[in-house]
């Protein structure tokens, strides 16, 4: 899949960059705290997650003001401003009702939109969200994180990476730290984080009329599971799906277990998933990983450059849902044992 990037203008003249991928009924996706449409498409795990959502529909994402490809604004972040930006995206889609998915802070924006514009939302998906931002962390923790982001954006982004993706490997954590810093300035990041703590949609839940799915990981370190239950309890007939895991980022950890109930709820066909279905070249690379070869050694043996070898290993890891080369090696060993026993 290839995404198409364009720009919209809000009622007050703010610039909003948006990306579209896939075809079919629109699924509007509201990101959490920070985003960057282009960089996120270059992160293999994140791109794979979006492609899984976009199979059979048109996935529309956007960067909020001050993030990624959207220009900064003199306006301070607020729920009203969030809704104005979403309104520009909704207007570009036309009159047809769309599916709406909000993650993290975006879940609260999605709730507010669905409550105010029930005629526009066909189905609503909330992942990793909360009802009251003041309850997702102790006041002292909030003050510490806000101060750290403002005074030392590098360290602040690393600390937040530990919270958002505790199970990610070192390389992925380093990548996400850089991604956050490239997505926003320290000042904008601090203001948006403060907004996430300030938002409260408790008085809007009863006004949501769209069929709603609330999905949450049981040990999410950024948003307590109790907040997910509160979301589901407050929205009439909402479904709650609790998945194992600690990662707040939807594409970190077992992303497939997250995608499956979402696609089912939206009426999209089930994606085939055969974790053993590697390409021929990936099978070769996996076998060399199992022999203990480095990326450079794999490149020499296969006559490719080292960066290509690294890319193959990363794609194998993502396809198999693994976090380390050791897991790839163990998987290869298990395959050999199965093959031997079948003979």
Automatic annotation (TrEMBL):
The record's section on SUPFAM superfamilies has: alpha/beta-Hydrolases, C-terminal effector domain of the bipartite response regulators
| PROSITE patterns according to UniProt | HTH_LUXR_2
Q: Name one Pfam family in it.
A: GerE
> HTH luxR-type domain: which residues?
271-336
Write the record's keywords in alphabetical order, separated by commas.
Hydrolase
| Secretion signal, residue range per the UniProt entry | none
| Cross-referenced InterPro entries | AB_hydrolase, AB_hydrolase_1, AB_hydrolase_fold, Sig_transdc_resp-reg_C-effctor, Tscrpt_reg_LuxR_C, WH-like_DNA-bd_sf
Task: Indicate yes or no for the key word Hydrolase.
Answer: yes
* Single GO term (MF): hydrolase activity
Q: Which Gene3D superfamilies match?
A: alpha/beta hydrolase, Winged helix-like DNA-binding domain superfamily/Winged helix DNA-binding domain
Keyword field contains Cell inner membrane: no
Q: Which PANTHER family does this chain map to?
A: BIFUNCTIONAL LIPASE_ADENYLATE CYCLASE LIPJ, HYDROLASE, ALPHA/BETA FOLD FAMILY PROTEIN
Name the chain's protein. Alpha/beta fold hydrolase
Organism per entry? Microbacterium deminutum
């Amino acid at each position: 899949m290839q995404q198409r990037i364009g720009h919209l203008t809000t009622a007050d003249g703010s610039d909003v960059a948006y990306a579209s991928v896939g075809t079919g009924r629109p699924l509007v996706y509201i990101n959490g705290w920070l985003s960057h449409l282009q960089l996120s498409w270059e992160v293999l795990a994140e791109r794979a997650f979006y492609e899984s959502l976009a199979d059979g529909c048109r996935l529309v994402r956007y960067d909020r003001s001050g993030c990624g490809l959207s220009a900064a604004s003199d306006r301070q972040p607020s729920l009203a401003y969030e809704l104005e930006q979403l309104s520009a995206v909704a207007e570009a889609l036309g009159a047809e009702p769309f599916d709406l998915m909000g993650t993290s802070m975006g879940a609260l924006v999605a709730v507010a939109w669905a409550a105010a514009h029930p005629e526009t939302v066909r189905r609503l998906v909330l992942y990793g969200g909360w009802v009251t931002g003041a309850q997702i962390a102790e006041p002292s923790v909030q003050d510490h994180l806000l101060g750290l982001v403002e005074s030392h954006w590098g360290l602040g982004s690393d600390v937040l990476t530990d919270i958002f993706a505790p199970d990610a490997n070192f390389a992925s954590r380093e990548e996400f730290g850089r991604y956050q810093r490239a997505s926003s300035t320290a000042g904008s990041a601090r203001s948006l984080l403060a907004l996430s703590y300030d938002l409260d949609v408790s008085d809007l839940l009863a006004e949501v009329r769209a069929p709603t799915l609330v999905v949450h990981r049981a040990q999410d370190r950024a948003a307590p599971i109790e907040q997910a239950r509160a979301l589901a309890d407050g929205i009439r007939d909402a479904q709650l799906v609790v998945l194992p895991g600690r990662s707040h980022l939807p594409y970190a950890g077992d992303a497939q277990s997250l995608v499956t109930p979402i696609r089912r709820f939206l009426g999209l066909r089930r994606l085939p998933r055969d974790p053993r279905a590697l390409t021929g070249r990936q099978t070769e690379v996996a076998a060399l990983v199992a022999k203990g070869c480095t990326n450079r050694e794999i490149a020499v043996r296969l006559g490719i450059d080292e960066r290509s070898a690294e890319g193959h290993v990363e794609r194998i890891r993502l396809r198999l849902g693994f976090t380390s080369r050791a897991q790839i090696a163990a998987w290869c060993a298990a395959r050999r044992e199965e093959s031997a026993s079948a003979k």
